[in-house]
Write a structure and sequence with these properties.
Elements lengths: L5 H24 L3 H5 L4 H6 L5 H37 L2 E2 L7 E5 L2 E10 L5 H21 L4 E10 L5 E3 L4 E4 H9 L4 H4 L1 H4 L3 H27 L8 H9 L6
Parallel strand pairs: 3-4, 4-6
Antiparallel strand pairs: 1-2, 2-3, 5-6
Length: 248
């Protein structure tokens, strides 16, 4: 295993984290009021006594951002894990369906599915991943003379399970996963600093754009879902969100 070059790591993270900030802003700029209102629970907003249009729009935007940012940052962590493996053990992006990374070490070929955290997936998704591993192992054994093939689910953050052998695959998370890729017990904390590269500037720029987008969406919401006295027309909002029986 080759030692990871700290400067190369910083350069990679600095470049990729800029892409993350750009992507989250671009996704927010593409946000359509009606599209997101159809996906959110209007009854919950009423139960929370949200009666100010800008507050409701802010709540919708926060819910949208929470899910989309988690998805985008998970993709960033996946790319980072592949980069680390490329530099330390000649890892490469996997072509197998549902898998992300392959590398050889000490006579073993590791097939890795990278997940952002330990809360990933429901039972059906885990069953599908297990089937993906079985198929990938079968293909590898047919096309390569490899003594041992080891499937791995690698989780970029989280303390549990740390390390567990299910019989079909290994589950490795947090510090142990980054150590598994790099041989460096401290890598999981060393990546924090470059991830924060110009974070304040990126977030300041983001908040300026976010405020403008919230103002635009609030104006649209008032036009479409408020009464003449500017109170929220809950009946109209609920009908827009859930009405699906045409009047005969």
């Amino acid at each position: 295993m080759t030692s990871l070059d700290g400067e190369a790591l910083r350069d990679f993270v600095n470049e990729e984290i800029v892409k993350f900030h750009q992507a989250r802003l671009e996704r927010l700029q593409r946000l359509k009021l009606q599209e997101v209102l159809r996906k959110k629970n209007p009854y919950l907003f009423k139960a929370k006594n949200i009666n100010v249009a800008s507050d409701l729009v802010a709540a919708v935007m926060n819910a949208f951002l929470s899910s989309s940012e988690e998805e985008m940052f998970g993709a960033f962590l996946e790319e980072l894990a592949i980069f680390v493996s490329e530099k330390t053990c000649n890892g490469r992006k996997s072509t197998a369906p549902g898998l992300d990374l392959e590398f050889d070490r000490d006579g073993t070929r590791y097939l890795v599915a990278i997940k952002s955290g330990t809360n990933w997936g429901n039972s059906s998704q885990w069953d599908r991943l297990e089937e993906n591993f079985r198929r990938a192992v079968q293909v590898q054994r047919q096309s390569h003379r490899i003594a041992h093939i080891q499937p791995v689910v690698g989780m970029c953050y989280g303390k549990s399970p740390g390390y567990a052998d299910t019989g079909t695959y290994l589950k490795i998370s947090g510090q142990r996963f980054w150590h598994f890729l790099s041989g460096d017990e401290d890598l999981y904390v060393n990546i924090i600093e470059p991830i924060g590269y110009e974070a304040k500037k990126h977030n300041d720029d983001f908040e300026v754009s976010r405020a403008a987008i919230q103002n635009r969406l609030t104006a649209e919401f008032i036009r479409q879902f408020c009464n003449e006295d500017f109170t929220i027309n809950w009946q109209k909002l609920v009908s827009f969100n859930s009405g699906n029986m045409e009047t005969q």
